[in-house]
Structure formats: structure tokens, C-alpha cells
Specification:
The protein is mainly α. The protein has one domain: M75 peptidase, HXXE motif (A middle domain of Talin 1), CATH 1.20.1420.20. The protein has 16 helices and 2 strands. It has a two-stranded antiparallel ribbon. Strand 1 and strand 2 form a beta hairpin. It is globular, with a radius of gyration of 20 Å. 48% of the residues are buried. It is found in: Cell envelope. Keywords: Signal. One of its GO terms (cellular component) is cell envelope. Pfam families: Peptidase_M75.
Length: 347
């Protein structure tokens, strides 16, 4: 996906700015922010993703046992509930989610509907292991979304074939397993990637300095603001087409986009779901209080502008174009601030 290329380029650029000698953020102790963000923002978000993905499996199995519109509605809501923490994690698409290929497995878009229809029409045994072995565009959030909501978002329980339900159950099981693996890779009892961030600059860490880890966090924020502003919002708006609109089957696009910017807010403030501590805000404000206030205001403005778009986004790109443009402008203004003065301040 294009965000991998962008993230890699950013990582190389930002790393080139870090001498490894502790210049920049190491002048102001960054470890409290790194420890808090690693544990109470990133790992905690992935923990919620794993829990919600497990609940989605239960809801789909209930739908399989009782193919009613009421059960379908519960499964659709379970999809939205699982989707939220994933979108809240997109401000930190580095580490195992990247190196282990979990991002494309969980969130490839668009759905390959032609190949999906071919698999459903085949005689293949639609087990979780079979689905896990298919290309990424045939599993993950959006394949599940397509099966649950239908092409036009109006699917009824009676519309399901037995093969669709079998595929849906297996795809949700794969999603659950991917999410569980992701949080485990960050936890002390598993891969403990959180320790790489928390111990930046110490012997054995992947990050040669605290500044290197801080730049990794900033790179993640720049990447997602670019993706939301130029891609998720800007692509369908510029093309005047819903073909590339993410989460259009469920009508969840606007929630996706706003949660992406909330992921920026969570890392910047060092806060998530009632947990709070040091964040990038502490490092920026120690150098430039006005810049810190500007960043916080631009984050809020971007979220508000996205949420001001009338739902559904599929209609807004045609009928409410000024509101979409305002959201694009707000998100890209935030990206420019992160990419320019914030990155410079924390070198």
C-alpha cells in the first residue's frame, strides 16, 4: 500500500537527521513520554483491538446460529466497534504491524470482489487456515465489511448464502488472530516491542537514541495525516468517485477519518481511554509553547472539520464539497506543521 512507501521514506529522512548522539529531544528527557505512549497509548489501543475483534467473532457465530436481521445488526455493530481501535492505531503504523505484514492482512482496500466471488463459487473448504492463505484483499476488515453490509449497505440476513456465512466466520477468526498476535508482539509476555521504544538509547534497543524513537512517533503522525488529507479524503473528492472510498459499504468513512486524527491526538497528548501521561506535547512545549498550542488547536480543528462533513461521505463528495475541502485543508495544515516546525523543533 502507498502508506508503506511513505512511511519508509519518512523513516529514512527522519533517521538521517538523528546523529545517534542524543542531540535534540535527548536534551529534554523524552523517556517518560516514550514509556507512556508505548504502554498506555499504543499497546493499550492494540489490546482494545484484540478484545473487540474477539467480540466480532462471537457476533458472527451468533449470526450463523440465528440468521436474523437482529443478529445481523449486532454483527454489523460489532464490526464498527472493532473498526474504531484499528483506526485509532493508524497514527503508529510502525514496528510489528509493518514488519510482520499485519497492516495489509487486517486492512487491505479495496476488496477484490471478483476473486471473492470466485472463491465463494468454488468448492474450496472455507476454513480459517484457507482464508488466511488467500491474498490480503480477500480478508481483513473490508472483506468482512462487504460480506456484512453488502455492496450498497443494505444487506438483510435473508440475503446470505451458506458459503458467505462460512467465509465470514473464517475471515473474522483470521482478523481476531491477527489482532491478538499484534498486541502480543508489543506486550512484555510476547515480542515486547514496547521495550524498544521505552529503552531507546540504551544498549540493545533498535533505537540508537531517544530522539530516534521520538522521530519514529512523529513519522507515524505525518504519515497518517498525509494519508487522510491527500488520500482518504482527497482521493474520492478529487476523483468525484466512491470507488476508492474506505469503509463505504458500512457508511463508516467519516468515523474512520476522525479516528485516524484522534490517533494523532492520542500520541501527541499521551492519552488514551482514560489513561494519561507524558506525550509529544511535553517535548514540544519545553521548546516552544506557542507551537505546542498551535499543534493542539490544529488537531482539534481537523477532527471538527471531518465531523462537520454531512454523512454519508459517499454523498458529501458530490453534494457538500466545501465541507470536504475544509476537512482536507485542516488535515493537511496539521500535516505541514508536524512535518515542518514540529520535526525541526524535536531534532
Amino acid at each position: 500500500m502507498t502508506r508503506f512507501l511513505l512511511l519508509s521514506a519518512l523513516a529514512l529522512t527522519l533517521a538521517a537527521c538523528d546523529t545517534g548522539g542524543g542531540v535534540g529531544t535527548d536534551d529534554v528527557e523524552a523517556r517518560p513520554a516514550l514509556e507512556n505512549v508505548a504502554d498506555n497509548v499504543i499497546t493499550a489501543t492494540y489490546g482494545d483491538l484484540a478484545a473487540e475483534a474477539a467480540d466480532l467473532v462471537v457476533a458472527v457465530n451468533d449470526l450463523d446460529a440465528d440468521r436474523s436481521d437482529a443478529r445481523l445488526a449486532l454483527a454489523q455493530q460489532a464490526w464498527r466497534d472493532a473498526r474504531a481501535p484499528w483506526e485509532l492505531s493508524e497514527g503508529f503504523l510502525f514496528g510489528p504491524v509493518d514488519t510482520e505484514g499485519l497492516d495489509p492482512s487486517l486492512d487491505s482496500w479495496p476488496v477484490n470482489q471478483t476473486d471473492l466471488d470466485a472463491v465463494l463459487a468454488s468448492g474450496a473448504s472455507l476454513t480459517p487456515s484457507y482464508v488466511a492463505g488467500l491474498e490480503a484483499t480477500l480478508r481483513g476488515f473490508h472483506t468482512i465489511e462487504y460480506l456484512l453490509f453488502g455492496e450498497d449497505g443494505d444487506k438483510r440476513a435473508a440475503d446470505f448464502t451458506d458459503r458467505e456465512v462460512q467465509y465470514l466466520a473464517s475471515a473474522t477468526a483470521v482478523l481476531r488472530d491477527d489482532a491478538a498476535r499484534l498486541v502480543t508482539l508489543w506486550m512484555p509476555s510476547g515480542g515486547n516491542y514496547a521495550a524498544e521504544i521505552k529503552n531507546a538509547g540504551l544498549s540493545g534497543s533498535l533505537y540508537v537514541s531517544q530522539n530516534a524513537a521520538v522521530q519514529e512517533l512523529i513519522g507515524g503522525l505525518i504519515t497518517i495525516t498525509d494519508e487522510v488529507g491527500a488520500g482518504k479524503l482527497g482521493g474520492p473528492y478529487g476523483d468525484r468517485s466512491t470507488a476508492e472510498e474506505e469503509s463505504r459499504f458500512s457508511g463508516n468513512s467519516i468515523a474512520d477519518f476522525s479516528n485516524n486524527i484522534r490517533s494523532v491526538q492520542n500520541v501527541y497528548l499521551g492519552a488514551y481511554d482514560g489513561r494519561s501521561g507524558a506525550g509529544l506535547t511535553d517535548l514540544v512545549s519545553a521548546r516552544d509553547e506557542a507551537l505546542d498550542a498551535r499543534v493542539q488547536a490544529e488537531i482539534t480543528a481537523a477532527i471538527n472539520a471531518i465531523e462537520a462533513i454531512p454523512a454519508p461521505f459517499s454523498t458529501a463528495i458530490f453534494e457538500s464539497r466545501p465541507t470536504v475541502q475544509a476537512a482536507i485543508d485542516a488535515v493537511l495544515a496539521l500535516r505541514a506543521t508536524l512535518e515542518g516546525p514540529v520535526t525541526a523543533a524535536l531534532r
